[in-house]
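Example record used in the benchmark description.
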Amino acid sequence: MSTNRLKSTLARGAPAFGAWCALGSPFAAELCSVEAVDYVCVDLQHGLSHLDAVAPMLMAISRSAATPVVRVAANQAHQIGKALDAGAEGVIVPLVNSRSEAERAAEACRYAPDGTRSFGPARSRLFLNAAPAPAVNEQVLCIVMIETMAAVEVADEICSTPGVDAVYVGPSDLAMSLGLAPGFDEMSRAHGEAIEHVRLSCERNGVVPGIHAQGGEQARAYADAGFRIVTLATDSAILSRALRHDVERVRGGKL
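Model output (structure tokens):
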């Protein structure tokens, strides 16, 4: 059985930096995965990928040392199981607002007796599933998202849920939950305090804190602050930013 490299990195206490695929392109996923990132996440919630595109994207990622991760569209067992069967070694589950919802996500990631995942390792049998179920359960990463103030208020309950390996903050939805505009440009004090509250809750409960950033500089700052799973940016944002930079250069700084 292969080893989940992302989980091994986190077990050593090192930060993990990753890329996020919104374009739905296997080639984009491949390009991201060969750039020395620790993981590449295929986004089924807001990205342009659908379930039928997951396997080709995970295949593209698997030629590299990056760990393949999928953000599922919802906290549903069949979606989580499908992503894992296709070869994801970790799942990110959006909009988890309570301990019971965190329990549901964790159980969907594991085979019995630890969970409720149905056995049918289509592509995953080539990787994590080439071992007895208890060993597979130990390797799969269950990452739940805190994205609302309702979830922030019960962060300790979510973070202490057995089977949850990491908690990932969604800054934009969290900002909207506070009545603020989504994005990173003008983070209010309340927004920053909510993010830090989640990080401290992770620390108290022995789970890994994660967060989405908008570039390398911010990602480094988050890592220095104690976050250990940090997404650098999405493929679509990287493309737009790079093209905008070149267009500004050829037009003399005028757009």
